[in-house]
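Q: Predict the assembly, please.
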Amino acid sequence: MMDTLASASNRAGGAETSAQPPIVVDARNLTKTYHLGQTSVHALRGVTLTIHRGEFVAIMGPSGSGKSTFMNLLGCLDRPTAGEYRLMGALVSRMKPDQLADIRSQRLGFIFQGFNLLARASALKNVQLPMAYAGLSNETQRRRARKALELVGLGDRLDHRPAQLSGGQQQRVAIARALVNNPALILADEPTGNLDSRTSVEIMAILQDLNRRGVTIVLVTHEADIAAYARRQVAFRDGLIVRDEPVAQPRSAADELRAFRQPQSASLSQEGAAS
Ligand code: ADP
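A: Predicted assembly structure:
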């Protein structure tokens, strides 16, 4: 029944006959030039990229290749020198700073390397913050914040302040905060950069789980190990995209965590090898 309805509406949609999910990011020929005194730095030199709903994209590339500049544009923190950027169909590249601020708070969620939590606020308050701007009642804010924290496994840490949480837990608070307004896109900038490898896998497991639930994620990393959890990799060099391809078999963070938790199976196989 559902299938019949879906295909009927697809036919009715005319141009929308393909099964492609809607476009979230539509960036065309973006350039960004910084002027420092007499010199111009061409940080982006014509970047075109389309990202559909439900994708999990890793942005890679060496230092200075333009990753941060591109993320600042995607995140509506800055405007391109030239080119067009549409987010969910809205032409952001022409918007004024206050419109950009609205788009950021309504459509985007951010996760940073340094967590960027308010030190004196509880986990719950930190996650409520993005909703405060949306004018929701305090009760709704608390309920949604609690639910987001439960989703990242922190239902029992609502009243802890950042200093009372481990790095991995702080990053999970930041993920809950990024999620709470139901954004069209989550932008994660080196989210595991400050974490040990086991904790990094835990964070990647949460991001992969969210992505399976349909959340669109763009993650910047210079680590190939981390980019291997994504489903698509886009590599920058000298302000241009030099590679853009699907990951044939993304790493599964959940599987790796299970292996971490079962060290006895490793020692058993060693015994087997010894005998
Ligand atoms: P990445 O994130 O890949 O390390 P960036 O986007 O930070 O690369 O930088 C790309 C280029 O633009 C570099 O040459 C960098 O020095 C330059 N750049 C970045 N931001 C600025 C800025 N605000 N002013 C001047 N130059 C900048």
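The longest helix spans residues 197-212. The chain has a mean pLDDT of 89.
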